[in-house]
């Protein structure tokens, strides 16, 4: 396992050291069988020759590294819109309980971030359900770097590690035993930002809190 962590150069050097030692005994044992190994022949010799002979002028090299035509696409960071910033006030807390495998949970996190942004909500670090297949009880903090997550998103949404004590009633069990008003109903596929504003904002405004399981289909902005 350790060898995989070595930089490429070190690995290549190691291989060079190991390879001759590895092949020499075989070469002595049966030179005819292994002669191909000793003198590998390029399969496409004419191609190789012409490639080596082709002059590479500086002009051609410059061409090679020139960015392709943008075809009208623009990087999103060159948007003419003013940069988004944190809302003046949070509308409340958004909590999500995510099940499924790591990839599903990752998508659930992305959805939750987008929805928190749309709603001006404060996102609570997502809660991962115990995975029923692998019995994996890893939490968000076990898998992801929480401080990094909070920090990279600090200009977009507020994130807290835990709900304030006022909401300590809001546990997984609370939602398991009854239908609760603070639970967001599943969004339709391709729900627009307006769907969230119309359906989830009122819950957030009434309770200062809402919750999704997992949340929602990806919002289309
Ligand atoms: C979110 O905050 C922005 C800026 O403070 C405000 O313009 C917008 O109306 C707010 N949206 C909601 C859903 O509260």
Automatic annotation (TrEMBL):
The keyword Acyltransferase does not apply. GO terms for biological process: fucose metabolic process. Residues 1-29 form the signal peptide. Pfam families: O-FucT. GO terms for molecular function: glycosyltransferase activity. Residues 71-80 have a biased composition (Basic and acidic residues). It comes from the Eukaryota. Belongs to the glycosyltransferase GT106 family. This is O-fucosyltransferase family protein.
């Amino acid at each position: 396992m350790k060898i995989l962590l070595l930089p490429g150069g070190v690995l290549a050097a190691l291989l060079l050291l190991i390879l001759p030692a590895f092949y020499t005994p075989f070469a002595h044992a049966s030179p005819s069988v292994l002669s191909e190994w000793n003198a590998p022949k390029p399969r496409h010799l004419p191609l190789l020759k012409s490639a080596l002979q082709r002059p590479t002028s500086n002009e051609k090299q410059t061409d090679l590294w020139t960015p392709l035509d943008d075809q009208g696409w623009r990087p999103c960071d060159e948007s003419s819109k003013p940069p988004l910033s944190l809302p003046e006030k949070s509308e409340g807390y958004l909590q999500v309980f995510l099940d499924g495998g790591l990839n599903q949970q990752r998508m659930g996190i992305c959805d939750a971030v987008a929805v928190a942004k749309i709603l001006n909500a404060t996102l609570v670090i997502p809660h991962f359900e115990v995975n029923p297949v692998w019995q994996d009880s890893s939490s968000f903090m076990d898998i992801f770097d929480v401080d990094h997550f909070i920090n990279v998103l600090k200009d977009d949404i507020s994130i807290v590690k835990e709900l304030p004590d006022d909401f300590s009633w809001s546990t997984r069990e609370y939602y398991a035993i009854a239908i609760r008003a603070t639970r967001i109903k599943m969004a339709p596929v391709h729900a627009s930002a307006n769907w969230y504003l119309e359906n989830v904002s009122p819950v957030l405004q009434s309770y200062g809190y809402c919750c999704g399981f997992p949340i929602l289909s990806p919002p289309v902005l």
